[in-house]
Each structure stands twice: as C-alpha cells, then as structure tokens.
Amino acid sequence: MFFYLSKIFWAPAQPLSVILLLIAVGLVLSIMGRRRLALVVQGLAGLTVLLVGFTSLGSVLIQPLENRFPRLAAPDQISSIIVLGGATQSRIGGARGVTELNAAGDRMTAALVLARRYPDAPLIFSGGIGTIISEGETEAASARRFFLEQGIPPERLVLEDQARNTDENAQLTAGLIAERHGPAILVTSAFHMPRSVGLFRKMGVDVVPWPVDYRSTGREGFGFDIANPVLNLEVTGIAVREWIGLLAYRWSGKIDEVLPGP
C-alpha cells in the first residue's frame, strides 16, 4: 500500500505537475471572470518555473543529502557489496536486449570497481520494477546482463528482483545477508544514501556507505543559473522527492530520524 500511495502522491506533487496545475487553475479562474486571482495564480506558476528551472534551487536542496555521508576509506574486509537499483532503463533495455544505464549509472560502474577490489565478496543487486504498471524486465535482469558482460562470474551475483522501492530493497536484501559476518558496502546515489542507510539500520544491517552519482558540487549557493534549465528542473525534482521520502518514512516509522547521519 505504501508503494502505491507514494507513486500516486508524487504524480501531482512533482515540480512540473505543480506548474501545469497552477496554469490550469489560472485558466479556469480567468474563464470564470476571476481575473485578478487568475493573475496571482499564473504569477505563481511563472515564479515556480523561474525557481526550479533558472536558479540553483535544486543544488541547494540536494546538497545536505549528498554531503550527509562523505565517502570514507574502504574497509579491509567486507561481507558483501550491496547495489541498489535505479541505474538502468530496464523497459528500453529489455525490449532491445541491451543494458541501458541512466544518469545514476555510477552505481553500476562503482560496483565493478568494488567487485575487483574485493574479489571474494558476493555482489548483491536489489531491484525489481518500480512502477505501478509493470512492463519490461526487472532491474535485476538488466543488472545481471551488465555484470556478466563486464566479466563478473555468475556465481558471484546475488540478484533480488522483487523490490519496488527503497524500503523493499532493505527488507528483502537483509534476508540475503543475514548469515554473513562483517559490514556490507552499500552503493547508491549520494542523495539517496541517508534514506537508504536509515532503512538498513532499521533492519539491523551494518552497512558502509559508498555514495556515488553526485548531482552537485556540494558548495553551491542560491542564485540564477540559466545554462541548463532542464537539468535544474531534474535536480530540483530529485531533491524534493527525496526530502518528501525522508519525511514520509520517518512519519511511518520506517526510519528513526528525518535525516539519518554517520
């Protein structure tokens, strides 16, 4: 139920949907003759476009998440390497029989580096189909193709293909490593690390954060940024979704604090 509610909520809550909703409300108010109120609503729509597309708001919002867990020196011994899904475009890859990586592809390439550093550690990938309408192959299937193509022996791969969100990643992966001793390295996007660590801690799993896929330098201040409004919109959307996810997970008791830290 939590999975479906999160997907339904995010559809109208994402920045682009908010902008379109404000525009639609403004048009309706204008048709109804409420022109002064319509101008206010349309002005809010324009202001939102300006903030999310032409300023560094997204970077400012995402920085506290990305800076929360700095990458530390790799431990000498680990029990396993855990990689969370979210780095593949499985619908496209499954249709074409190839592995398509998205902007979070660092999760996969970092896993390869760690797999070579720890040749005896199993490589655990967690990811099913994270959409309400299931289509295409699971992320685990895409990951299997990718890792085999990169020379990882199949016997090293442990694939969990049922998780649809981060909560299920933690729950289902915890069972796979219950009998293993020592810390596991957790690989996911830096902005996603606080929520992920909080969930794994709640499951009693000792993880070493290995953040990748940074979307900011970590030092941006707020200001105008007109170079790439599409990228600004994307980063803002990611940051807003992650903050909402943290609040929702804390409210539901899935994590013990709003912003888990080291």
Query: Looking at the structure, what is the overall shape?
Result: elongated
How would you name the CATH homologous superfamily of the largest domain? HUPs
Hey, roughly how much beta strand do the residues contain?
5-15%
What structural category arises from helix and sheet content? Answer: alpha/beta
How does CATH name the architecture of the largest domain? 3-Layer(aba) Sandwich
What's the tally of helices? Answer: 10
- H/E series: HHHHEHHEHEHEHEH
- Per the CATH scheme, the topology name of the largest domain is Rossmann fold
Describe the structure using short key phrases.
five-stranded parallel beta sheet; 5 strands; 2 domains; 10 helices; DUF218; Cell_Envelope_Assoc; Rossmann fold; 262 residues; alpha/beta; Rossmann-like_a/b/a_fold
Topology readout:
Layout lengths: L1 H12 L1 H17 L3 H20 L2 H10 L13 E5 L5 H7 L9 H12 L5 E4 L12 H11 L7 E4 L5 H11 L7 E6 L3 H10 L4 E6 L16 H23 L11
Parallel strand pairs: 1-2, 1-4, 2-3, 4-5
Helix pairs in contact: 2-3, 4-10, 8-9
Describe the model.
- By secondary structure, this protein is α/β, with parallel strands linked by helices.
- It folds into 2 domains: 2-66 and 228-251, no CATH class; 80-212, HUPs (Rossmann fold).
- The chain has helices spanning 2-13, 15-31, 35-54, 57-66, 90-96, 106-117, 139-149, 166-176, 193-202, 229-251; strands at 80-84, 123-126, 157-160, 184-189, 207-212.
- It has a 5-stranded parallel beta sheet, with helices on both faces.
- Helix 7 (139-149) links the parallel strand 2 and strand 3.
- The two termini are 30 Å apart.
